[in-house]
């Protein structure tokens, strides 16, 4: 009896100081978990097994933040972009703890993104991508669609050396990238990327005809746009699923280095959601993101080799 009373007393004392940190998913339906964290319970548990060994804090204190709370705190922020004090209140931890959790979880997921998000490099990988695009629009030998998107961040307090500020043209960013160097060297074989008119026409990057005047040119542009819209839709789905990336979430209020980790984490989680065939977010919301984000671009002149390749595709497949 005395032992029981002592345990109850200790429990009451602990509850007066610390909030209960049981797994909040136990109190929710699977639909509620999916709405709040963008993943069902089973997926979150699987993700926890992946990241838990790296986020367990070595401490002798009794109030260490459990890995499940750390993961849910990060997922909730990615999903909503909510203020740290709101996220902390939901999960029973302080604002400063939310900041540390975001740093730790985003570092881990960011590394997973770097390790798993790759451009298709082998013949088998490229053939699979080509087949998918061809089934979509009958446009041949497409190994990818390319575009850029802006993610709002807090203005840095100090002068930051950034490679490509938001005003940099998409075509210039591509020209300085490893992908451009690799594809220009012929690594992609007979494949090519598709881009909008803001990109230069190259033998490995096909853009639409500016003023299509014939039936074949219009058919070419229609098929090219159907393929190219996949990347625009990806950005729409990404920002709708993870509101922290969308301007409606208020922008990322971190230093640039931490912003990069958060962005990479959302990319990794987006791919995970696609692998699990999770439903995309509200379609109306996705369409609004697309309308806000993508405008028609001014054409960048191509080179003869790009013109020759595009004309060959036009004659062979769309005439």
TrEMBL record:
Pfam families: DDE_Tnp_4. The keyword tRNA-binding does not apply. It comes from the Eukaryota. Its cofactor is a divalent metal cation. One of its GO terms (molecular function) is hydrolase activity. Residues 162-271 form the DDE Tnp4 domain. Belongs to the HARBI1 family. This is Putative nuclease HARBI1. It comes from Didymodactylos carnosus. The lineage of its organism: Eukaryota, Metazoa, Spiralia, Gnathifera, Rotifera.
